[in-house]
Design a protein that fits this description.
Blueprint (H helix, E strand, L loop, with lengths): L2 H8 L3 H10 L5 H5 L9 E11 L2 E10 L2 E5 L7 H18 L7 E4 L3 H10 L4 E4 L1 H11 L4 H15 L4 H18 L3 H18 L12 H13 L29 H4 L1
Parallel strand pairs: 1-4, 4-5
Antiparallel strand pairs: 1-2, 2-3
């Protein structure tokens, strides 16, 4: 049935009936994706995408596992309180499917408010620090020196491939000893030395063989989602209704909390 025909018979316009159609079946991302409570993943990745809506910065708390989006929401800040509400949509849907659900680990980029939000929603969840974010942060500081960039990158991924905690600590220690002598730029050297304090959070992953050690899985989904946002058009909100999303948000018909706002 074309939306123009629905508008002709029942009034309003085609865009209205398109939005109504898209809203059908969006009640639970977790419930419609996983379905079987026994298949709920215990190892997750969480991160926030920065975006814009009507000229205002917004944040999109995203939960991913098994190559699928399991939680997506919109919040107006990246503080603890806002992120608790943002990630709560995943918690609500997961508990609706399995009341006793408790994830074992969640991989984050190290943002304190993200980690606090997850510990608030799921007390006892183990936090794993994304190693990829650490590598990218250090690489950014030595892009103008290709030789140093290659050497540092190689050493960092050599640390990452360590088969156990002991080897991880040994390789990190040797890299830091090398950095004190061989690395000239003070910023790069300091970032390498700062990895010592982060090491315990990297090593948590060795206690959970199936846990995510980097955010690659989430990043791939976000990179795929970005071009799709260009297909959406911006429409002014109807009187009395909040705007649901702009093209930069993507998945503007799929955020579980938006149905509550409208």
């Amino acid at each position: 049935m074309p939306f123009d025909a629905l508008a002709y018979v029942f009034g309003r316009d085609a865009s209205y009936w398109y939005r109504v159609c898209q809203a059908l079946g969006r009640c639970s991302i977790v419930g419609t994706t996983v379905k079987d409570p026994k298949l709920l993943p215990v190892n997750l990745i969480a991160d926030e995408k920065h975006s814009w809506r009507l000229g205002e910065r917004i944040y999109i708390p995203t939960t991913v596992a098994g190559g699928c989006f399991l939680g997506v929401d919109l919040v107006e800040s990246a503080g603890t309180k806002a992120l608790v509400e943002g990630y709560k949509s995943f918690q609500t849907e997961a508990l609706a499917l399995s009341p006793n659900y408790r994830p074992e680990t969640v991989n984050t980029d190290g943002w304190e408010h993200t980690q606090t939000a997850w510990q608030t929603l799921f007390p006892g969840v183990q936090l794993i620090l994304c190693f990829l974010h650490a590598v990218l942060g250090i690489r950014k500081c030595c892009r103008r020196t290709p030789a140093l960039l290659q050497e540092v990158t190689g050493r960092l991924w050599h640390i990452y491939k360590a088969p156990g905690k002991r080897q991880f600590s040994q390789r990190l220690r040797r890299t830091q000893e090398w950095a004190k002598v061989k690395v000239g730029p003070e910023t790069v050297q300091q970032k390498l030395l700062n990895l010592k304090a982060k090491s315990p959070k990297f090593q948590v992953a060795y206690d959970f063989p199936d846990a995510y050690r980097t955010s690659n899985t989430l990043d791939r989904l976000m990179n795929y989602r970005a071009p799709c946002t260009l297909q959406y058009a911006i429409f002014p909100p109807l009187p009395g209704l909040s705007p649901i999303a702009t093209p930069s948000d993507g998945f503007n018909m799929e955020f579980s909390s938006l149905r509550q706002q409208n």
